[in-house]
Write a structure and sequence with these properties.
- The complex is a heterodimer of chains A (about 120) and B (about 110).
- Chain A is about 0% helix and about 50% strand.
- In chain A, the strands form two sheets. In chain A, strands 2, 4, 5, 6, 9, 10 and 11 form a seven-stranded mixed sheet that branches.
- Chain B is mainly beta.
- Classes of the chains: A mainly beta (about 120), B mainly beta (about 110).
Chain lengths: ~120, ~110
C-alpha cells in the first residue's frame, strides 16, 4: 500500500530555513509528481509547487518563487521541500501529496503533515 | 484570499442530500475538467473524494458525486450520515500549470 511519511515538527526563528522530507513507499517513486501543500491554522490548503522525481523538473507557485526549493533523492524514494527566509505567517502544516504524471488530477495520497512553527 | 469560492458552512439531517458549490474562473474551473474534492477531519490530512469533476476513487462511497457547469463545480452528498461531518475543499488545475484550492466548507450533520 502507498505511504508518504514526513519528517517531524520543526521550530524555526524568522529568517531561517526549514527542510521537510517525504519518504514514499508502496509505489514507483518516479512514476508520480510530488506536490507540497501547506495549511495554516484554521485556513484552507495552499498549493506550493511540484517536483517530477524522474526528471528533477520543478514548478513553483508564484507566491513562493525564490524562497522554495523542491528536490528529490531517488535512491531512497524521498522528496524534499526547503523554504527559506521564514516569516511568522509561514507557520503551517506542510503536506506532501502525489498526482499522476499523465493527468493533472487529484492528490490521491497525502503525507501525515509536518508542523513548521516560526517564532522568535 | 482563496482562489476558489465555497460557502463557509452547510448542514443537513441524516438521510438528506446537500450540495457544496465551488466557484472559480475561466482560468481554472472553467478551463479544465480537473476539479477535485477533499474531505478533511480534525487533525487529519485531506482525503480525495472526487477527482476530474466526477470520478470517485476506489473505496469512496457512491453517495458522493461531483459535477461542473461553466466556472462552477459542485459536490453532492446524498443519504447524509454522521460520519460525513468535516471540512470539504475543492481544488482545480489552472491555466498557469498550478493548482488552487477553495477556502473550505464545514459540513454539519444535525
Amino acid at each position: 500500500q502507498v505511504h508518504l511519511v514526513q519528517s517531524g515538527a520543526e521550530v524555526k526563528k524568522p529568517g531561517a530555513s526549514v527542510k521537510v522530507s517525504c519518504k514514499a513507499s508502496g509505489y514507483t517513486f518516479t512514476g508520480f509528481y510530488m506536490h507540497w501543500v501547506r495549511q495554516a491554522p484554521g485556513q484552507g490548503p495552499e498549493w506550493m509547487g511540484w517536483s517530477n522525481p524522474l526528471s528533477g523538473d520543478t514548478h513553483y507557485a508564484q507566491k513562493f518563487q525564490g524562497r522554495v526549493t523542491m528536490t528529490r533523492d531517488t535512491s531512497v524514494s524521498t522528496a524534499y521541500m526547503e523554504l527559506s527566509r521564514l516569516r511568522s505567517d509561514d507557520t503551517a502544516l506542510y503536506y506532501c501529496a502525489r498526482t499522476t504524471v499523465l493527468t493533472p488530477g487529484g492528490f490521491d495520497y497525502w503525507g501525515q503533515g509536518t508542523l513548521v512553527t516560526v517564532s522568535s | 484570499q482563496p482562489a476558489l469560492t465555497q460557502p463557509a458552512s452547510v448542514s443537513g439531517s441524516p438521510g438528506q442530500s446537500i450540495t457544496i458549490s465551488c466557484t472559480g474562473s475561466s482560468s481554472d474551473v472553467g478551463a479544465y475538467n480537473y476539479v477535485s474534492w477533499y474531505q478533511q477531519r480534525p487533525g487529519k490530512a485531506p482525503k480525495l473524494m472526487i477527482s476530474e469533476v466526477s470520478n470517485r476513487p476506489s473505496g469512496v462511497s457512491n453517495r458522493f458525486s461531483g459535477s461542473k457547469s461553466g466556472n462552477a463545480a459542485s459536490l453532492t452528498i446524498s443519504g447524509l450520515q454522521a460520519e460525513d461531518e468535516g471540512d470539504y475543499y475543492c481544488s482545480s488545475y489552472t491555466s498557469s500549470h498550478s493548482w488552487v484550492f477553495g477556502g473550505g466548507t464545514k459540513l454539519t450533520v444535525l
